[in-house]
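Morning, I've got a small favour to ask if you have a moment. I owe you a coffee for this, so here goes:

…
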Amino acid sequence: MAKAKKKQTKGRIVAAAWQLFYKQGYDATTIDDIVEASGTSKGSFYHYFSSKDELLGSLSYLFDDKYTELAETIDPDLDPLEKLIYLNRELFLMIENTVPVTMLSQLFSSQLLTKGERHMLDPDRMYYRLLREITIDGQRQGLFRDDLSINDIMKAYSVFERGMMYDWCLSSGNYPLCQYSQQILPLFLKGLCKAD
């Protein structure tokens, strides 16, 4: 119970911070703003984060909150490929509508430069748990190539998604991320599937 409450507190801080970053900009958002918007305390903030800058690496937590929400609402009748396309669309729409390109760029930058934990690659993230579940289901149904392991497929897919986000950042968000991904993702997934 206490662990769940701590996770909720941290999640509220992260969610409030990113909403404020999107609305006001990173530089204009203060720790006091984040504390007030999250309904927490400065003590709670500093328990989880040493500074506002440390929040830059927390965007992956926000993504995982979205994946948790999607895992509960996804249509179980969709096949594994349709599930991957659906999850990609919903996440990329969220990114386009709530995450400034500069913030996503800073997330990539912080993950490249950090010597510590790289949240984006943490195999215990909801993203990877959900991806593993869908990939295993696809293997059981005989959709994916036999010469690729579950880990091969998961890695290829996650690299594809990160590559799409990275290119969008490099392009300063000058094209619709979700729309472009929905055109390219089915072509990419075809390469992971058995030939018809």
About this structure: Residues 56-190 form a domain with the Tetracycline Repressor; domain 2 fold (CATH 1.10.357.10). The chain has a mean pLDDT of 86. The chain has two domains: 1-51, 56-190. The two ends are 49 Å apart (CA to CA).
